[in-house]
Design brief:
alpha+beta; Thrombin, subunit H; Pdz3 Domain; 3 domains; 6-stranded antiparallel β-barrel; 22 strands; elongated
């Protein structure tokens, strides 16, 4: 009996071995429904036969990045500050910039290098690092011009920022959070005046939803051709210190207007009319009996200044606007070079397009009489216009 059982086991095992060893290969993988395999099935991948073609938008993104990246630099400012216990503590700040010419001039924000009392280091996209010297700064426009001594530099191309339109595509390349060579994209969301971090006005600032974060400051804002239209400078973040989709750039034309002075003098020789002024609105104009309900009233002419030399007149009688004393009786400026002037900021905007020594036409109302006088701009020395 035992032998019969043993013989049956041997026959079953032998038969199973024979069948599995001699079945065709594709039948060996058959299994009963609900049965569990002791080994994983073969992994089958679907792969593309060729790299996918980029669409037109992707091709432009890639082209802009490749063209401009060699011109964008990372800037590290080194400073030595004192802590609460008057001990010296080294600090570093990070920002971005871009190369203007083969001589090694680099444009960035003033606030990126403001406290760099222990040197500034510029790193190119090829990872080479160079010490930089400050050629000039313009605190009011938050601009700084640096220079490095490096070979084979690739300058950016500067666009005209006067004709920008809301909705056009823009790119930002920089060093956000220390992540070198980062590109983001968006559109121009608005063109508006804002106040910078130090309170100085930025006229026609470019608002964009392209992601701008700490470390982007000083880097280029580009149009779809890879030309620089602005310098990324600040974000509206509600204290979050990261992108909220509202970033701002200084128009590149603002920088163009001061680069010559920064290179030649190390600071801007801001032109000035040489006056102390006060804005006039309809209500005040009616109270004072002025011939126009807008304009800038000259309260005082700075002796020896441009307005003084041209024969403009300041106020000769003191009055009070609430508790604020003002001088009345002077000339009322209503236009400069044919541009209407309604407030001192209008004069400041016009000055951004001029240099000391330029000749301009100033249209004034002297009483009821309109006069247009030629005026040679002087250099600002603490006056407000």
């Amino acid at each position: 009996m035992k032998m019969r059982r043993l013989l049956m086991v041997v026959l079953l095992v032998g038969g199973f071995w024979y069948v599995t060893a001699h079945l065709p290969g594709d039948l060996r993988h058959l299994k009963l429904i609900g049965a569990h395999s002791s080994s994983s099935s073969a992994l089958e991948l679907t792969e593309a036969h060729a790299a996918p073609a980029f669409d037109a938008e992707e091709q432009n993104n890639i082209a802009v990045y490749k063209r401009v990246l060699p011109s964008v630099v990372n800037i590290t400012s080194n400073a030595l500050v004192f802590n609460f216990f008057l001990g010296s503590v080294p600090q570093q700040g990070q920002g971005s910039g871009f190369i203007l010419d083969k001589a090694g001039h680099v444009l960035t924000n003033y606030h990126v290098v403001e406290n760099a009392n222990r040197g500034i280091e510029v790193q190119l996209s090829n990872k080479h690092k160079y010490s930089a010297k400050v050629i000039g700064t313009d605190h009011s426009h938050d601009l700084a011009l640096l220079q490095i001594d490096a070979p084979n530099l690739q300058p950016v191309t500067l666009a005209d920022s006067n004709d920008l339109l809301v909705g056009q595509k823009v790119y930002a390349i920089g060093n956000p959070f220390g992540l070198a060579g980062t590109m983001t994209r968006g559109i121009i969301s608005a063109i508006r005046p804002i106040r910078g971090a130090e309170g100085a006005p930025i006229e026609d600032a470019i608002q964009t939803d392209a992601a701008i974060n700490p470390g982007n400051s000083g880097g280029p804002l580009l149009n779809s051709r890879g030309e620089v239209i602005g310098i990324n400078t600040m974000i509206a973040s509600n204290g979050a210190e990261q992108s909220s989709g509202i970033g701002f750039a200084i128009p590149i034309n603002t920088a163009k207007a001061v680069l010559a002075d920064l290179t030649r003098y190390g600071h801007i020789k801001r032109p000035s009319l040489g006056i102390v002024s006060f804005p006039i609105g309809p209500d005040l104009a009616e109270q004072l009996g002025l011939a126009a309900d807008y304009g800038v009233l000259i309260q005082k002419v700075i002796p020896g200044g441009a307005a003084d030399r041209a024969g403009l007149r300041g106020g000769n009688q003191q009055a009070y606007l609430g508790n604020t004393p003002i001088m009345i009786g002077g000339d009322l400026i209503v236009a400069i070079d044919g541009q209407q002037v309604t407030e001192p900021q209008d004069i400041s905007n016009i000055m951004d397009n001029h240099q000391a020594g330029d000749t301009i036409s100033v249209t004034i109302l002297r009483g009821r009489r309109e006069l247009t006088l030629k005026l040679i701009l002087g250099e600002a020395r603490g006056t407000n216009a």
